[in-house]
């Protein structure tokens, strides 16, 4: 079971920053919600670089990045979600 963390975007407002701690070998799910439910317009960044689409899951109301078997040397970083054309 992955720990879930949710980022909720608001019109014209940055979602802010949330610091999370993850134990090595565990799983985490980072979820981003668009205020208008337009999950297809969400973009994920890690350390300022776009995350490859195969690591991002999209549903009707939100977009997710799931990290399984968390390894600090591979997975540490600042994960950001933003709405394209906000």
From TrEMBL:
Q: Which residues form the Ig-like domain?
A: 22-86
Q: Which PROSITE patterns is this protein grouped with?
A: IG_LIKE
This protein's superkingdom?
Eukaryota
Q: What is this protein called?
A: Ig-like domain-containing protein
User: Origin organism of this chain?
Assistant: Caenorhabditis nigoni
């Amino acid at each position: 079971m992955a720990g879930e963390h949710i980022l909720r975007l608001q019109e014209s407002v940055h979602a802010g920053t949330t610091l999370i701690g993850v134990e090595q070998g565990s799983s985490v799910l980072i979820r981003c919600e668009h205020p208008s439910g337009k999950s297809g317009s969400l973009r994920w960044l890690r350390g300022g670089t776009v995350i490859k689409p195969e690591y991002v899951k999209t549903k009707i109301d939100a977009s997710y990045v799931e990290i399984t078997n968390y390894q600090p040397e591979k997975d540490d970083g600042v994960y950001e979600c933003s709405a394209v054309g906000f």
